[in-house]
Amino acid sequence: MKKNGKGLLLLMILVLFALMAAACNSEGEEGSGSGSGSGVDVGIVLPTKDEPRWVQDEQRFKDALSDSDYSTEILFSQGSSAKEKENVEALLNKGIKVLIITPHDGAAAAAAVEAAKKDDVTVIAYDRLITDTDAVDYYVTFDSLAVGAAQAQYLIDNAEGSDIPLYLYAGASSDNNAFLFFQGAWEVLQPKIADGTFKIANSSEAEALSDTKELDRDQLSKIIGQVTTNWDPNESKNKAQTHLTSVGEDLKGDVAILAPNDGTARSIADVFGSDSAVTDYTITGQDAEKASIQYIIDEKQSMTVFKDVRTLVQDAMGMAVEVLDGNEPETTGSYDNGAGEVKAKQTDVIVVDKENVKSELIDTEYYEASEFTGIE
Ligand code: BGC
Questions:
Q1: Counting atoms of ligand 1 from 1, which one is nearest the CA of 54?
Q2: pLDDT at 20
Q3: 246 C-alpha to center of ligand 1: Å?
């Protein structure tokens, strides 16, 4: 009796531990859809919680899923391809039929999606393409070339005179989008570098290619390798400080800065803003992050490229539901990922600056005016 009692207690403790371990393992958030049994229908893997951009996507997924009939789970990879693969495997073990994934590293993620394909799971690349694998079925994306082109055009539209120092920054080389953003920007900027409107201030690789409008992947790699921020605000800040320390007065004054996204733009803007020899700067961004909207209102960041995440989430979930219902999702084009053409659905982007911030972001209910100071 006594022995049995102990055995029962031990069993209860074991069960308790098993339950706690299960709770700890599921760092993800279950979607609030009613679900179709005990498994998960759609697995969503996002790259990091450390950037507001992806926290924004998580929230928009949750909003969109609140009345979905299918069950979902969202996991974050925290900037690690190994963690990303673990996340995909955990979701495969839960029986997902569709995987929506934004890779941390577009090439390294091939292994994870190939594992999914082996399990007959439909793979949707979300915002970032996964390269050099035929295991990607669909790609939902913004027009990334247009993002870069819009940033470049903004710098041109706000340029006065000639020989304006131009500081170039790029995203992470492991992200295919960083190439598209830079390529889109370069094609618009290059003629204005060639005609003397801008002079490149911080990249010998870009200077060496300043006569070439259409850069191939290797040429882009060279420039991006030199001016990458790795999408990291700290790295951006350090690079900007190094650049400003190493240039003379002729590369200060009124300057133009191509910053690839909002997180990096705020860091770079802080550095340029605190250099007394920089009299004025125009700086780009993208993502319409709340902190950058405040910077735009405060005139510390010039513009952002607004990518309406609600549309991307709708497109991705719409595709997932079509697949689950046994239909072929609609696409509008395709992207070459190095292994073949991936069917894609693409969404347009919108330039936002101080002039239209209210009409584009507040009146459309993307954000509320009360989230900012200085907006009516
Ligand atoms: C996304 C951007 C984001 C960047 C850094 C890119 O792939 O398209 O919106 O700012 O990654 O996370």
A1: 12
A2: 44
A3: 29
CA of 208 to the centre of ligand 1 (A): 27
Which atom from ligand 1 is nearest to the alpha carbon of 287? 9
Residue 243's φ and ψ, nearest 5 degrees, are -60, -45
Distance (Å, whole) CA 67 – CA 33: 6
Geometric angle at alpha carbon 53, from 176 and 64, rounded to 5°:
105
Q: How many CB atoms lie within 10 A of CB 208?
A: 13
Closest CA to 183 of 155, 142, 223, 220: 220
| 336 Cβ neighbours under 8 A, 6+ residues apart | 342
Instruction: Work out which ligand 1 atom sits closest to the CA atom of 177.
Output: 7
Q: Whose CA is nearest to atom 6 of ligand 1?
A: 177
Q: Kindly give the distance from the C-alpha atom of residue 22 to the centroid of ligand 1, in angstroms, as a whole number.
A: 32
* pTM more than 0.85: yes
Summarised one tens digit per residue, pLDDT across range 225-251 is 999 999 999 999 999 999 999 999 999
Cβ 44 vs Cβ 101: under 8 Å = yes
